[in-house]
Specification:
This protein has 388 residues and is α+β, with helices and mostly antiparallel strands. It contains eleven helices and 14 strands. The strands form three sheets. Strands 1, 4, 5, 6, 7, 8, 9, 10, 11 and 12 form a ten-stranded mixed sheet that branches. It is elongated and about 95 Å long.
């Protein structure tokens, strides 16, 4: 046992020092693992970017009441306003009627249509949306054909930044400001005053949802129970946090399936590349390994030296892939379709994602080096010297 403990680090150092003489083969392994890790992080950073955007403070305290049997009218606001747990502002319940629609932007670019989601809310009550703030320009005013853009919408449609106008519903809407809520889906929308929207769409006093700010997450249950006990209202309740999670869940599931398939195929290729390279290394160094065995080195130090080389090369490739991902992908702006709408978000390379990439790298390196290492350890000194 003492001999093994001395032999193992000695063979490890000897093997590492000899890697430069096999630089071409080592580069093949390193690049293979670099590509796998970079693709793995690239795809999952999309999911993490979405998750980071949709996890925001205050959303678990905003209840969204939706009609099960059609739109609401103003009487529904009075009914919902009697529910327990609603924040009171100036002795009035913190409620807001909300609607939404599709915004078709003609001639967005030459011969191109832009299709975006539009949210409508009373201009005086926009602050009921968690984390709502104006980051450029000003809020739209009641009674005017004015429009705001979310930060994400600005990145998608920079041509319509504050000061421009949009033709919609046969009216010219002036873009007067940019807002932010921290949500990729909501910040990729446009916003107009509810009453102007109702007038433009001839919806009368109808709207589809009611936003209610609740005093605490614990009060949501009693609020939901109260609404459920009003069959004439015909409404369902979910928090904004639940709605955000629902919007992102299906998209993240698709991404996870995609990364599983893509990574599995690429990882298999990288492992086979490592196997071929390590088998070639063992074959080319058969005489050296046989000499070591003849000098008294046991099988375990030989196995450990060859296996550690594969793992070391894998870690080198994985570390390079992680570094490239952190420098080139973290915070990078991207766009995709979610819920039928184009949304803008930023990729997120999180510590957990880096840890997963390292685990993947170590696993691939171990598998890629194990069998060549076993072959090297089991190599007969006499046979190897004869073949050499």
């Amino acid at each position: 046992m003492t001999a093994v403990l001395h032999q193992t680090p000695a063979l490890f150092i000897w093997n590492v020092r000899s890697i430069p003489s096999r630089a071409r083969n080592a580069a093949v392994v390193i690049i293979s693992f670099l590509v796998v890790v970079l693709v793995f992080i690239s795809v999952l950073s999309v999911s993490d970017g979405i998750l980071r955007s949709e996890t925001r403070p205050g959303t678990s305290q905003l209840a969204i009441v939706s009609g099960s049997h059609g739109p609401f009218d103003t009487s529904a606001l009075n009914v919902v306003g009697q529910a327990p747990g609603i924040v009171q502002i100036d002795q009035k319940p913190a409620l807001a009627a909300v609607d939404s629609g599709a915004l078709v932007i003609r001639n967005w670019r030459p011969d191109m249509l832009g299709i975006a989601s539009i949210i409508t809310i009373d201009a005086k009550k926009a602050a009921i949306i968690p984390n709502f703030r104006v980051v450029a320009g000003r809020k739209m005013r009641p009674g005017f054909n004015e429009m705001m853009m979310g930060e994400g919408a600005v990145r998608i449609y920079p041509e319509y930044l504050a000061g421009r106008s949009v033709l919609w519903r046969n009216r010219k809407w002036n873009v007067v400001g940019v807002y932010s809520t921290g949500s990729l889906t909501r910040d990729s929308q446009f916003m107009v005053d509810l009453h102007q929207f109702q007038d433009a769409t001839r919806a009368g006093n109808k709207f589809s949802e009611i936003y209610a700010r609740i005093v605490s997450p614990a009060a949501i249950t009693s609020f939901k129970n109260y609404i459920a006990g009003l069959p004439n209202l015909g409404a369902t309740v979910k928090t904004m946090a639940e709605e955000d999670e629902e919007v992102g869940r299906q998209f993240r599931t698709i991404l996870i399936v995609a990364v599983s398939v893509i990574t599995s195929l690429m990882a298999a290729g990288a492992v086979f590349a490592a196997l071929n390279v390590m088998y070639a290394n063992v074959a080319s160094r058969a005489a050296e390994l046989a000499l070591l065995r003849t000098l008294g080195f046991s099988r375990f130090p030989v196995l450990a030296a060859i296996l550690s080389e594969a793992v070391l090369l894998a870690v080198a490739g994985g570390a390079m892939g992680i570094l490239l991902a952190v420098l080139g992908l973290d915070g990078l702006e991207a766009r995709t379709l979610m819920g039928g709408w184009l949304v803008s978000f930023r990729l997120a390379v999180t510590p957990l994602l880096i840890l997963l990439a390292l685990v993947l790298t170590l696993g691939m390196g171990f598998v890629g080096g194990l069998f060549p290492a076993i072959r090297a350890a089991c190599l007969s000194p006499a046979t190897a010297l004869r073949d050499a």
